[in-house]
């Protein structure tokens, strides 16, 4: 039986400060960063993030050449005096491209599960994972570490419905998943494709024709022989707001409500517990 640990849904800062199972490797200041040779650090083979945007990586390398590495990466000791990255592989890769020989690190004695959770949290909070990578990370937490969907939601600060929707993406055909990984289909598109009679065919149409999510949803209904509902009264809510709500909800993994009054309005983010609130605050603060 897996026991849920407190503090994991509150972002990396809380994770580092509160996890009694991950004490710092002996230093004078447990919160201070150390310098390690870049060559002594290895990427985590279980890293949930599989793709790295080369353009963004080059831009980060240019920034590091000028300003250095502003935020230490998170590592754990591995075999023979080496270290394994827990969070911050982009910074490590960019540092190599920038010609750095040393990089600031924070060293923690993470277990396998704590290290993987930390990697998931960092990537999700930084929106660095594409939806398929995010779903695969959640699936690993469930399959390898015995998490339930509720525990995954708590760990990542996401709504349980978001976790469930992401996991459903893994049932899509491989060619559709590839289009999502490439960014040719958004999460909203993918959810529409799941309802189609031939998901692969609709996915190709979306990518080739640049269909919006609403158009994809209509195409999925037509493929099932379902007629789109007729418009009601003229005072009906703007469908573009519905689409925007759905897009923001997919991106944040939270329930989002938008109310527009002329040129003004409100955006409401709903959270179900304090872990989700902490996640919202962490993302707003960058």
Automatic annotation (TrEMBL):
ParB-like N-terminal domain location: 34-124
A Pfam family matched in the record: ParB_N
Gene Ontology biological-process annotations: chromosome segregation; positive regulation of sporulation resulting in formation of a cellular spore
Keywords from the named record: Chromosome partition, DNA-binding
GO cellular component terms given for this protein: chromosome
MF GO annotations: DNA binding
SUPFAM superfamilies: KorB DNA-binding domain-like (SSF109709), ParB/Sulfiredoxin (SSF110849)
Residue segments, region Disordered: 219-239
Keyword Metal-binding: no
Coiled coil: none
Family label: Belongs to the ParB family.
Function according to Swiss-Prot or TrEMBL: Involved in chromosome partition. Localize to both poles of the predivisional cell following completion of DNA replication. Binds to the DNA origin of replication.
Name of the protein in its database record: ParB/RepB/Spo0J family partition protein
Lineage: Bacteria, Pseudomonadati, Pseudomonadota, Alphaproteobacteria, Sphingomonadales
